[in-house]
Write a sequence for this structure.
């Protein structure tokens, strides 16, 4: 007896599964509108604000992931940010971290892609740690607290990032990365 080409239960579950969370959230908002419309409207407004704030960084990260996947081979990533990349990898990961904008969690998917392509844990951790230095805010820091404070602060942030990256690299060996 052959199976009909129609919709099977397994196919239906596979099609519905990605929509379970959004549908669940929509149901919760609908229930909220019935029980407390004013509070639900405020919550929906705050959710919209968060979505608008995250929309651009997540899209930017997605574009960067596509570019990474399209133009950078695992061999290139390993050469630039792999375990043996030396001072060059440290400089690249530090500068990339300093120049990156938006919330750090928007960068996690891209960092995962880079890790899968051969980037070392050290450089990924250094990227995340180097994000504490914000070039846009340096003039304000200098204006309020002076050059000496600002310079020492930046150097301490970068040194702390370097030490944290070293610790992460030691504890999370490349072979036991999951």
């Amino acid at each position: 007896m052959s199976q009909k080409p129609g919709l099977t239960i397994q196919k239906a579950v596979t099609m519905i599964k990605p929509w379970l969370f959004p549908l669940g959230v929509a149901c919760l908002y609908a229930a909220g509108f019935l029980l407390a419309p004013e509070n639900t409207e405020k919550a929906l407004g705050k959710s919209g604000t968060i979505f608008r704030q995250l929309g651009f960084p997540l899209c930017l990260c997605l574009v960067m992931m596509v570019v990474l996947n399209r133009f950078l081979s695992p061999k290139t990533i390993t050469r630039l940010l792999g375990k043996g990349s030396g001072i060059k990898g440290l400089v690249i990961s530090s500068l990339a971290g300093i120049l990156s904008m938006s919330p750090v969690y928007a960068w996690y998917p891209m960092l995962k892609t880079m890790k899968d392509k051969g980037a070392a844990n050290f450089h990924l951790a250094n990227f995340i740690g180097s994000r504490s230095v914000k070039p846009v805010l340096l003039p304000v820091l200098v204006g309020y607290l002076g050059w000496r404070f600002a310079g020492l602060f930046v150097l301490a942030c970068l040194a702390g990032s370097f030490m944290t990256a070293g610790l992460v690299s030691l504890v999370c060996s490349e072979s036991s990365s999951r």
In short: The chain has nine helices and no strands. The chain has a mean pLDDT of 85. The longest helix spans residues 37-71.
